[in-house]
Amino acid sequence: MLPARLQFLLPAKYRAYPHPIVPVVRLSGAIGAVVPLRQGLAMQNVAPLLERAFSVPGAKAVALVINSPGGSAAQSHLIYKRIRAFAEEKKLPVIAFVEDAAASGGYMIACAADEIYADPASIVGSIGVVSASFGFHELIERLGIERRVHTAGKSKAMLDPFRPENPDDVVRLKGLQVKIHDIFVDLVRTRRGEKLNDSYDDLFSGAFWVGAEAVDLGLVDGLGDIRTVMRQRFGEKVQFRMIEPARPPLLGRLLGRRPLVEGRLIDPQEVLGALEERSAWARLGL
């Protein structure tokens, strides 16, 4: 075996690593709420991070640090499946750590891990499906605005916020929500198995709990932070390899924004994204 100072001469897969290495991927923000230059979670920006994490030579496990109120069901499921695909391909255990929240789609992603840990004050759960919007039809009537919608297909303008709510549209929406909810419930049951406390009737009601309660319900495996748990698992000399997203080029950051008053710069899409994400966090009381 080559001395440590000459290990760099060998291909990565043949090197000896003096300390355990754990790549860390931070998954923060609302899921699907990705706009130019704004943080969020979607396959387009998460997949490269996961690929890099699972390709780190000498890795003993991959750690996910999750802080998300949820969001798009499809994006959550895609990220979940990509984590599981990499874990099975690379034969690496995945351990998730919840910060403020792993709720709704955030918890779906956490279920991709083989073990989940949370802080006692973390919010965990919200295994349900929600759709929220506004109705503006009375407002535009007061303003004297006429709404004109022409479609090919009777359901194409379903749930139009500028027209009175149609009970048939609501029935159709709830049917879709039930199907998505079933996918979520099956996923949690598959991943958590006998750890779940099925005696609790509200487990899949969309309710959420703090970390200690989540342990009792089997939604997480224990309480702890990444540094403490990983040191207990791999020793005091474990090394964390942070997998960071690439920053957009400076020119792109400047061109992607629009001027506002008093010399400040702001992207209108960022404002909408911020409002949407703030609403998602507010549902958890955060």
From TrEMBL:
Pfam families: Peptidase_S49. SUPFAM superfamilies: ClpP/crotonase. Residues 88-231 form the Peptidase S49 domain. Keywords: Hydrolase, Protease, Serine protease. It comes from the Bacteria. Belongs to the peptidase S49 family. This is S49 family peptidase. It comes from Microvirga arsenatis.
